[in-house]
């Protein structure tokens, strides 16, 4: 079976050398290119088309910005962020841009190899501590939403999520349509959304 071809992009030479050395000791991997910037990432993607590209978040050219460029240049290349950034915003941005992995630099060689194997199988891989942060934020976000809404607003948004119009909601709850509209304005503000469709999605997502 052919070895997995990997590119390593990090602007800290000693760290990069350590990663390359660890991967090279595994007979299933071959490091085909190294770099220190977003520009290097794009060059390696274009010239070498690696199976996996390890990218840092904080580096010249911005690792997050490089993700979409790499995927455009080499659609078959799977991107894994290998970073010290524990910011949830960085994780979310990376996944939205198309990265399939988000691994913190404190990981050992075995953990990195396992992450690469997971991504090669077509699954996403996120460091456990980052997954926990996402879950904590989501739960807090959802609890906050329900705490902010009044019992009447919860009744209304429940019906909105079922697809009912303001008029039908008014009939069901024995409210005037303008009263329902007023409640909807409050619901949109409290949920931080701009329309009833987003409100319904947000409300349903809290149960996912």
Automatic annotation (TrEMBL):
The modification 4-aspartylphosphate is found at residue 56. Residues 142-207 form the HTH luxR-type domain. This is Two-component response regulator protein. GO terms for molecular function: DNA binding. Residues 5-120 form the Response regulatory domain. Pfam families: GerE, Response_reg. InterPro entries: CheY-like_superfamily (IPR011006), NreC/VraR/RcsB-like_REC (IPR058245), Sig_transdc_resp-reg_C-effctor (IPR016032), Sig_transdc_resp-reg_receiver (IPR001789), Tscrpt_reg_LuxR_C (IPR000792), WalR-like (IPR039420). PROSITE patterns: HTH_LUXR_2, RESPONSE_REGULATORY. One of its GO terms (biological process) is phosphorelay signal transduction system. CDD domains: LuxR_C_like (cd06170), REC_NarL-like (cd17535). Keywords: DNA-binding, Phosphoprotein. SMART domains: HTH_LUXR, REC. It comes from Rhizobium grahamii CCGE 502.
